[in-house]
Design brief:
The protein is built from four helices and 25 strands. It is of the alpha+beta class. A four-stranded mixed sheet has the order 13-14-16-15, with helices on one face. Strands 19-20-21 form a three-stranded antiparallel sheet, with no helix packed on it. About 5% of the residues have low confidence.
Length: about 475
């Protein structure tokens, strides 16, 4: 039992357990008094949103005034102003973050949990999600199951795990002094990018988040500006052809480049490539894909490299674009030397002979035209109906011209689309005024402001002359 001071009237009344944790902006009862909480919480101290008797309304458990209690889901990170009074002694109910312009406010523990809470997936694509622990724990907010969590939460002063193990000195570290950091395993330290901020204080960036458009160093965007101007044109996989097998090497696994994989803690392994649509009768060679052993962000892969990586299941949040069958009448006017064969005793297809043996590694467009794997997801409409780019996560399409740009060109401060759509959209937090009446109103307001300014300046000059 607590005493509650009603915000609207200032009246003090008793607060009973059966009256707690009602949704805000509804009619409810506090003690024996009916309260309409249509703009603010009912009680000034917020106690009506604690010690919930209904488990379905519990957001988290914490110490309140030295006693274990619960806090309602109706008041934790639900308001962008975040002005509800702090209830937990350690402030865990106020650990609210805004991860992007399109995501108003979420609790810290909703990040990197495998469940998308933001329309732009900013809670799952944030850079802190790239480096997580191997061990799991139940998060204090919204966690029904044990999850891994970002390394940046370790010993950050906030107990994120129910058992508080994230704040204990049990985690492996790497580096010394200003480069000391927590790591997933007890492993040898890899190189980091050292930088100096404006205050001269030393800091560092791990290479897997360097040039991520977050200015960690203070001058990171300036350092990375040149690399962003390089066209993303590398889309061809390297084929190593032997008698009975073909090895397809992805760009990170090319000879001489494998030493850069430590930047993302990756290594390369060999995987058998099976066309997800069919394997035809008479196939004469095995296709092997030499790719990274972990799933990777494929938004920066193009052409054959993207297709093979996605089709062996090594892409995060993207799928294989091969979805249409190569049938006997596909690709009309192309591949005049085609040889017909059967697929699983179900339908007729064709193959062509090449250095790799007999194959039909082609992408069938929606209009039945065909292109090679290297032409898929390469930022160019090679099909003529854009179907070779539809399933690709690596591009932004201008609204009017339908031109494809790399995802890094969106919201980068440089206008690439003639209609400005790469910089003025929901993701960038900017909008172009649409509709003739809105544009007309904008012109009227602008013209009126100009006229008023001219009148004010003229009147001031006239008054000054009059004073003389």
């Amino acid at each position: 039992l607590h005493e509650c001071t009603i915000q609207a009237t200032g009246r003090k009344i008793p607060l009973f357990n059966y009256t707690r944790c009602f949704p805000r902006a509804v009619r409810s009862w506090v003690g024996s008094e009916e309260v309409v909480s249509n703009s603010k919480y009912s009680c000034i101290n917020g106690f009506d949103q604690t010690n919930c008797s209904d488990e379905a309304r519990v957001a988290l458990t914490c110490q309140i005034g030295g006693y274990t209690s619960t806090v309602s889901i109706f008041v934790v990170c639900v308001d962008i102003r975040n002005d509800f009074p702090r209830l937990c002694d350690d402030g865990i109910d106020k650990e609210c973050v805004r991860v992007s312009l399109n995501c108003l406010i979420i609790h810290k523990h909703q990040m990197c949990d495998g469940q998308v809470d933001c329309d732009d997936q900013g809670d799952e694509n944030n850079y802190i999600c790239l480096s997580q622990t191997d061990k799991t724990c139940k998060r204090r907010f919204g966690s029904k199951h044990a999850l891994t969590f970002p390394l940046s939460w370790i010993n950050d002063g906030v107990a994120d795990c129910m058992g508080g193990e994230d704040e204990k000195q049990i985690w492996p570290t790497c580096g010394v002094g200003e480069t000391m950091r927590y790591v997933t395993h007890n492993e040898s330290c890899q190189e980091v990018f050292l930088c100096r901020n404006s205050a001269g204080k030393g800091s560092f960036i791990e290479f897997n988040i360097l040039c991520d458009r977050i200015d960690t160093c203070g001058n990171e965007n300036k350092i990375c500006k040149k690399s962003r101007s390089i066209a993303a044109s590398f889309s061809h996989a390297l084929y190593d052809v032997r008698q009975s097998e073909t090895t397809i090497r992805m760009s990170p696994c090319l000879p001489g480049l494998t030493n850069i994989l430590y930047l993302k803690n990756l290594s390369c392994e060999t995987y058998a490539f099976h066309n997800p649509i069919h394997d035809f009768l008479g196939k004469s060679s095995t296709e092997l894909v030499f790719s990274t052993h972990k799933k990777m962000d494929c938004r920066h892969l193009y052409g054959g490299i993207y297709l093979y990586t996605s089709c062996i299941g090594k892409c995060k949040n993207s799928s294989c674009p091969l979805s249409r069958k190569v049938e006997h009448d596909s690709c009309p006017g192309q591949f005049m030397d085609r040889i017909y064969t059967i697929v699983n005793n179900t339908y007729l297809t064709f193959v062509v002979k090449s250095q790799q043996g007999f194959h039909n590694n082609v992408f069938v467009c929606k209009n039945n035209h065909c292109v090679g794997f290297d032409k898929v997801c390469n930022l160019v409409d090679d099909c003529g109906d854009s179907s070779d780019e539809h399933m690709c996560p690596n591009h932004f399409q201008c609204h009017e011209t339908k031109e494809y740009l790399s995802v890094t060109n969106e919201c980068d401060g440089t206008i690439d689309c003639k209609d400005l759509s790469d910089e003025c959209n929901d993701h960038c937090g900017k909008q172009i005024i649409n509709g003739y009446w809105l544009k007309g109103l904008a012109w009227i307001i602008g013209a009126s402001a100009s006229i008023l300014n001219i009148w004010t300046v003229s009147k001031t000059i006239f008054d000054l002359r009059k004073c003389k």
